[in-house]
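Second opinion, please. Please look over this fold, written as tokens:

===
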Amino acid sequence: MEKTSKILKIIVITFIILFCSIQCAFADDVDEEIVEVNQEFTQNCINEVAKNISGEPTINSRKAIVYDRKSKRILYGKNEKVKCAMASTTKIMTATVVLENANLSDEVTISEKAGGTGGSRLGLKKGDKITLNDLLYGLMLRSGNDAAVAIAEYVGSSVQGFADMMNKKAQELGLTDTNFVTPHGLDNSKHYTTAYELAKLTDYALQNEKFAQIVGTKQTSITINGVPRTISNTNELLGVLNGVVGVKTGFTNGAGRCLVTETKRDDKDIITVVLGADTKKDRTKDSVKLIEYTFSNFKNINVKEKVVEEFEKWRAINAKRILVVKGKEKEVKLELKELKNEIIPLKADQENDIKISINTITQTEAPIQKGQKMGTLSITMKDEVIENVDIICKEKIEKKSWIDYLKQNLQVIFNIHILNL
């Protein structure tokens, strides 16, 4: 009897350990921590930034970035190019692949696998019927892992097939330090990204109006089996902090607390990524700090004006020094190609660090085509190359023919004859 009791105890303890392990392995956005993000909370974060207005904020998150959407520049970084787990921020790519490869009006029947997926859930069961459109809202607002698997099975035929589509898209976007294994982001050693590449992905995703609309929705109604249901966004900053318009939360034991945020104020549009925060409060506080730090310290500078001014000065002196051999024209007319970033955000003390250098060829042989590259204008700031702009030939220069040489020689003879009269 005593032996039987011991065996039962061992079985119960083993079951408890396995159950806890399974729960931990599948934890995603199932976070018991409650953080009341209100005006007082955000104001306290803003006040903390204000105390050290010119210095970079101290944050808890292990990886972070502030990415300017217009100039594509990193305004703040902390281990931003180190590979790491990203939890449910994975779903930014999941949604992107769906939006580019499927009809959102299609109806999906939930499989046993999708209905049994753990972690944060929309609450789907085997046999439920729901449109892809509503699955997307459940994916991005409620962070439903069950919705993620349902989407993967429908759009990619399987989780593996959909992961292949995700990785193909990552390659197209040049995300070389990113790899996807699942559509939901539950911990897997082969499933990773960097804060930098996650920001780049988010920047791309937000160019899709439907994506931006979904992640910017605070609350909406979806339909499962014809029955309406109201769902709310897990993004604690949406609708609370000035200018926040999305994007996605995340949490696993391996990734920690994660938050990707887009914020628009006046003429600025930034993406903030924090990964590996210890608590939900930390990820929220870190995000607010980085957002307020950026908008308090950076202003948009018109680089194009500086570039044009410097180029015109240089051209007035140097354009005629380019020797054109065998050309009908002796002088090359030069112009600049369009700048990719006419406006860039800089700190007040960085504007004077901008340097413009110009390098062109000193001699070339005709023919010269219109638009042919003749040199480069480089815009730098300390060790950072902001942009290289091509200097090109404005008009075509044809090569001299034998008739041109004959005319030239006759003109020389005529001039000598006139001088001797």
About this structure: The CA atoms of residues 273 and 405 lie 66 Å apart.
